[in-house]
Amino acid sequence: DAGVIQSPRHEVTEMGQEVTLRCKPISGHNSLFWYRQTMMRGLELLIYFNNNVPIDDSGMPEDRFSAKMPNASFSTLKIQPSEPRDSAVYFCASSSTTGTLNYGYTFGSGTRLTVV
Amino acid sequence: RKEVEQDPGPFNVPEGATVAFNCTYSNSASQSFFWYRQDCRKEPKLLMSVYSSGNEDGRFTAQLNRASQYISLLIRDSKLSDSATYLCVVNQKVTFGTGTKLQVIP
């Protein structure tokens, strides 16, 4: 099992540029989550999908952020245009969920984003 | 009130000590609870699930108190390698606590 795979591991970009983060969940997991972690705010849930459908995107900070899950094995988080305050570590996690029960989340290694 | 609250610490404890962390949650309908461990500049990793009856894994014991709406993690005989940030997770809205930093000192 390769685990949750995120790319890129590091991204440095200039303010105003578009940034796309990618995630491949664990095969067989039906839920996928995007988190952002900063020292000030800790780990924040941005959006999560269940069976490829966005369930809750209330954590997405603003319209500059968008996420898609075109199929069960791939998701993207896009920031356009990026701003310095978007600098953070972005984690993708996947899990197996049945109803309201969850069996634990497995995280990818994260993408460390720096917007200059 | 925040959905999930933890004491951020840091907790500085000597090797061999017993240390306990609590995590309170606001949504009484929450169903699944977990403790995660996060090392510096790494991703969170599942430490253990928390079951209603309480559960133990070696030196680690997790408990759930639904009446008071908190979960706890007890670490016995602390090792240097236990130094990390411990995050609680409450499932209702997949909410993580901000984490409790533990530093075990020789």
What does this structure look like?
- The complex is a heterodimer of chains A (about 120) and B (about 110).
- Chain A has about 120 residues and is mainly β.
- Chain A has no helices and eleven strands.
- Chain A has strands spanning about 5, 10-15, 20-25, 30-40, 40-50, 55, 65-70, 75-80, 90-100, 100-105, 110-115.
- With about 110 residues, chain B is mostly beta strands.
- Helices cover about 0% and strands about 55% of the residues of chain B.
- Chain B contains no helices and eleven strands.
- In chain B, strand 7 (about 60-65) and strand 8 form a beta hairpin.
- Classes of the chains: A mainly beta (about 120), B mainly beta (about 110).
- Chains A and B meet through strand 5 and strand 10 of A and strand 5 and strand 10 of B.
Give the quaternary arrangement of the chains.
Answer: heterodimer
Weakly predicted, low-confidence segments of chain B:
none
The succession of helices and strands of chain A, N to C, reads EEEEEEEEEEE
**Share in β-strands of chain A:** over 45%
The separation of the N and C termini of chain A measures 36 Å
From the alpha-carbon coordinates, what is the Rg of chain B to the nearest angstrom?
A: 13 Å
Query: β content of chain B, as a range?
Result: over 45%
Brief sketch in words of this structure:
Chain A is mostly beta strands and about 120 residues long. Chain A has strands spanning about 5, 10-15, 20-25, 30-40, 40-50, 55, 65-70, 75-80, 90-100, 100-105, 110-115. Chain B is mainly β and about 110 residues long.
Key phrases:
heterodimer; A: 116 residues; mainly beta; four-stranded antiparallel β-sheet; 60% strand; B: 106 residues; six-stranded mixed β-sheet; five-stranded antiparallel β-sheet; 11 strands; 0% helix; globular
Please write out the topology.
The complex is a heterodimer of chains A (116) and B (106).
Chain A: E1 5-7, E2 10-13, E3 19-24, E4 31-38, E5 42-50, E6 53-56, E7 65-71, E8 74-79, E9 88-98, E10 101-107, E11 111-115
Parallel strand pairs in A: 2-11
Antiparallel strand pairs in A: 1-3, 3-8, 4-5, 4-9, 5-6, 7-8, 9-10, 9-11
Chain B: E1 4-6, E2 11-14, E3 19-25, E4 33-38, E5 45-50, E6 55-57, E7 60-65, E8 70-75, E9 84-90, E10 95-96, E11 100-105
Parallel strand pairs in B: 2-11
Antiparallel strand pairs in B: 1-3, 3-8, 4-5, 4-9, 6-7, 7-8, 9-10, 9-11
